[in-house]
């Protein structure tokens, strides 16, 4: 990682510092809810969550530094999927506030999130509105100086343990394709969590029901008709960090595979001495290096050039998550019967990587985004031989 040209001095050594800190951390609490809370608190006390909020509100950098967030997610995922999840949701669950919130909103929420004292959540998905965000049915209407929100969100990370939710809803009185982003406190009357799900790779996931939740005007983030822009701009930042988490999972799979195959004897010699094993290890290494370049290119472009990085982020997420799935599948294959035993590291990685190909935009959606971007660029520039 340190050999890449995308880093400033402030990034050098960050991965080593996080990895060193992780070596002292305990795991294995009784429930996934408890373990998530524990990691949020630990990450906050260690100062790592300060990278998830901007400097004026307790953060490290003046603006969200995507390279730093990617480095931390890459490193956390190498060690613990739930640690990565806890860190990631603090950033995503306050991303709209960091990027578009008022000064009052930032002061009210970001410092506590950066200290690990306040758990955040991002609520946009509905049962019939996943990748097609514009299909959401949750609505928000003005009601006596407040906004009344009605609807249901599902597959929401941190549902039931979050202190606040960023809820996206249609605002039909402002236009047919108007959407708002609202900060909804967990204690708001009418908000409930009717179910939580058992997930392939355990993390907190559930359904939110909003039954006449009334929030003040000050809970609206930015323009009450511009929520879709806020959602897409937030995902534009955090999709790259999903790719970084996939990269961390893939790195761990390769390390586990090298350690196992150099010790495991097969036909009188280490498994790693067989050419077919070496071919797999080589393919894994190439995939990881290529993912690393795409992830940190996307982060560098966002940090140094600014603006939207829709194309770069979609490419990074698509390639890194899909290639990590292949790398980890190869790792399971190399481990043989041990690879499918519950509790083995590669078995855990096999479960953890699967969700990354779906959330924050499934791989198929990333392909549509990438195609749209390259077609638009071609149209604007004109055909090279026209």
Alpha carbon gyration radius: 21 Å
The CATH architecture classification of the largest domain is Up-down Bundle
Along the chain, the helix and strand elements come as: HHHHHHEEEEEEEHEEHHHH
Unreliable stretches covering 5 or more consecutive residues: none
Total strands:
9
- Measured distance between first and last alpha carbons: 41 Å
What's the CATH topology label of the largest domain? Butyryl-CoA Dehydrogenase, subunit A, domain 3
Which class do the helix and strand fractions yield? alpha+beta
Mean pLDDT, to the nearest integer, reads 93
Described by strand count, sense and barrel closure, the largest sheet is: 4 strands, antiparallel
Shape: globular
The percent of residues in helical segments reads 40-55%
> How much strand content do the residues show?
5-15%
Whole-number count of domains: 3
Strand order of the largest sheet: 2-3-7-6
Summary tags:
Butyryl-Coa Dehydrogenase, subunit A, domain 1, Butyryl-CoA Dehydrogenase, subunit A, domain 2, Butyryl-CoA Dehydrogenase, subunit A, domain 3, four-stranded antiparallel β-sheet, three-stranded mixed β-sheet, 11 helices, 9 strands, 50% helix
Written description of the protein model:
There is one protein chain. The chain is α+β, with helices and mostly antiparallel strands and 386 residues long. It folds into 3 domains: 110 residues, Acyl-CoA dehydrogenase/oxidase, N-terminal domain (Butyryl-Coa Dehydrogenase, subunit A, domain 1, Orthogonal Bundle); 105 residues, Butyryl-CoA Dehydrogenase, subunit A, domain 2 (Beta Barrel), CATH 2.40.110; 154 residues, Butyryl-CoA Dehydrogenase, subunit A, domain 3, CATH 1.20.140. The chain has 11 helices and 9 strands. It has a 4-stranded antiparallel sheet, with no helix packed on it. Strands 1-4-5 form a 3-stranded mixed sheet. Strands 8-9 form a two-stranded antiparallel sheet. Strand 2 and strand 3 form a beta hairpin. Helix 2 crosses helix 4, helix 3 packs across helix 7 and helix 4 packs antiparallel against helix 7. The longest helix is centred in the middle third of the chain and has 37 residues. The mean pLDDT is 93.
